[in-house]
Amino acid sequence: FRIVMAPWSTGIEWKTVGVYDQEKAAPLDSMLRIAEARGMHIQLAIDVSLGFDGIKSWDAEHPYTQFLKPGQTVSDLLKDSAAIAAFSEYFRYVHARWINDPTVVNIEMMCEIFHWEGYEDHRKDFDDFFVMMHKLLRNDLGDSLHLLSCSQIEGNLITGFRSDGMDYVDLHHYSNNYST
After folding, report:
1. For the segment 69-85, what is each residue's pLDDT rounded down to a tens digit?
2. How many CA atoms lie within 13 A of 34 on its CB side?
3. How many Cα atoms occupy the beta-carbon half-sphere of 174 within 13 Å?
4. Which of 19, 21, 61, 64 is deepest in the core (most CB within 10 A)?
5. 171 pairs with which residues across the strands?
6. What pLDDT sits at residue 53?
7. Half-sphere exposure of 46 (CA within 13 A, CB side)
8. Element (H, E) at 132
9. If pLDDT is split at 50, 70 and 90, which confidence band does 179 have?
10. CB 162 within 8 Å of CB 127
C-alpha cells in the first residue's frame, strides 16, 4: 500500500523548512496503526509535489522554493547545497520517526519525477541525488532493511531504472491505452 505525504493531509514540512507539523503527522500515525492492524506493508512517499508541472499552485507554497534563484527550475534544487541539506534533514526526521514502524518497508523519495519542471535537462542531477540519498540511508543511518524508490510514469524511464541509488522504481500508468 502506498501512502503519499501530500500537502493537504500528511505533508509535514509544508510551511517552513525544517519545521515538521505534528498535526499533519498525526493522521499518518493513524494510517500506519490501521495498516498494522490489517497486516499491510507501506510504501511511504515523502515528496509529492515540488516541481510537479501540472499543479503549479503547490510550488508557490512549497518552502523549498526559497532556495531558487531567478530563472531556475525546481530541478535546479538538486544541485543546491542548502536545499539538499534541508531535504537530507527532512529525510532523517522521517526516517527517525517512522522507519521503525512495522508496516513501513519502503521510502519513495520523489513522486513521478518525469513531471518535475526541468527534468529533461537534469537527469544526471536526479541520479546523483538518488545515489546521495541511498548512501545516507545505507551508510549514515545504517539502514540496510528498507528500500528506496521513486515513481515515474511512462516516458523516458532511464533515470530511475539506471540509478545506483534506487532499489526499485514503481511505474504509474494513468490511462486505458497501455502499450508495451
Report:
1. 888 887 888 889 999 99
2. 8
3. 6
4. 64
5. 152
6. 47
7. 22
8. helix 123-135
9. low
10. yes
Burial state string for 71-94 with b = 16 or more CB within 10 A and e = fewer than 16: eeebbbbbebeebbebbeebbebb
Q: For the chain, what percent of residues have pLDDT higher than 90?
A: 28
**Could you read off the pLDDT of 124-133 as tens digits, one per residue?**
888 888 889 8
Q: Which helix (H) or strand (E) holds 149?
A: strand 147-153
Query: Dihedral sign, CA of 123, 121, 69, 6?
Result: negative
Between strands 104-108 and 42-45, the pairing is parallel
In the block, which residue shows the cell 533515470? 159
Separation of alpha carbons 133 and 127, rounded Å = 10
> pTM value?
0.84
CA 138 → CA 23, 40, 43, 76, 108, distances in Å?
A: 30, 24, 17, 25, 15
- Does residue 55 register a pLDDT over 50? no
